[in-house]
Amino acid sequence: HKAFDPSKSSTHISRDNDTAVITMSIDSTCDLCIDEETPLCVKYCAYEARGVKP
Question: For the whole prediction, is pTM greater than 0.90?
Answer without folding.
Answer: no
